[in-house]
């Protein structure tokens, strides 16, 4: 914020917005690089990754079908929430959309960096680690609940848990973390597109 105030004529509100976006992109980019350096030489030792990974063609198919499954899972979750009188848009998605409209660089964070980090942390590390020590289904639920809580949007917790479970399934079937990352990226790209085009909200 200090750099922006000294180098630009942005208003205080704009300084806060731009600083938030620039810091999110920078810090998460650094985190991705560090995690990649730490994990790139690690052996595939978790229960999820043992065995032969899916072929490239099968992995692409799972990424695309997973993307469709994520959209269906979100819709079903929102429908179930509606039965209990819970409606409206996700504050988390609305906030990210507003930041992206103000500073388009935010799209890089939302569509690329966030999916990479979240899949490595919640699927590869947490889910993979837990699955090697307990029932794989219990591990999927626990990691998905943590994934939902991380978004700090308790009203839409069910939606995030369902998303997490679908991504765990994709990872388990392909044994490639790149596959849930790709499906997650597609979902977030669509969410951002909806924010820009119609002002709607996907999660």
From TrEMBL:
What Pfam family is a match, any one? Rce1-like
Q: Which GO terms describe its biological process?
A: CAAX-box protein maturation; proteolysis
Q: Sorted alphabetically, which keywords does the UniProt record give?
A: Hydrolase, Membrane, Metalloprotease, Protease, Transmembrane, Transmembrane helix
InterPro entries xref list: CAAX_protease, Rce1/LyrA-like_dom
Establish whether keyword Transmembrane helix is in the entry.
yes
- Spell out where the chain crosses the membrane: 20-39, 60-87, 99-118, 130-149, 155-172, 179-198
Q: Where is the CAAX prenyl protease 2/Lysostaphin resistance protein A-like domain?
A: 104-190
Q: Name any one GO molecular function.
A: metallopeptidase activity
PANTHER family registered for this protein in UniProt: ABORTIVE INFECTION PROTEIN, SLR1288 PROTEIN
Name of the featured protein: CPBP family intramembrane metalloprotease
């Amino acid at each position: 914020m200090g750099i922006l105030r000294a180098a630009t004529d942005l208003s205080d509100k704009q300084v806060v917005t731009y600083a938030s976006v620039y810091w999110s992109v920078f810090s998460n980019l650094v985190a991705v690089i560090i995690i990649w350096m730490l994990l790139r030489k690690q052996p595939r030792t978790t229960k999820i990754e043992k065995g032969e990974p899916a072929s490239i063609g099968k992995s692409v198919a799972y990424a695309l079908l997973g993307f469709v499954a994520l959209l269906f899972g979100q819709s079903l979750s929102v429908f179930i929430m509606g039965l209990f009188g819970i409606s409206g848009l996700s504050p988390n998605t609305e906030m990210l959309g507003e930041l992206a409209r103000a500073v388009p660089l935010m799209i890089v964070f939302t569509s690329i960096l966030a999916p990479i980090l979240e899949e490595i942390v919640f699927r590869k590390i947490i889910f993979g680690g837990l699955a090697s020590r307990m029932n794989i289904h219990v591990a999927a639920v626990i990691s998905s609940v943590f994934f939902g809580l991380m978004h700090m949007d308790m009203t839409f917790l069910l939606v995030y848990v369902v998303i997490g479970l679908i991504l765990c399934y994709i990872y388990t079937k392909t044994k490639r973390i790149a596959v849930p990352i790709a499906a997650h990226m597609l979902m977030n790209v669509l969410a951002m597109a909806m924010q820009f085009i119609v002002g709607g909200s996907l999660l």
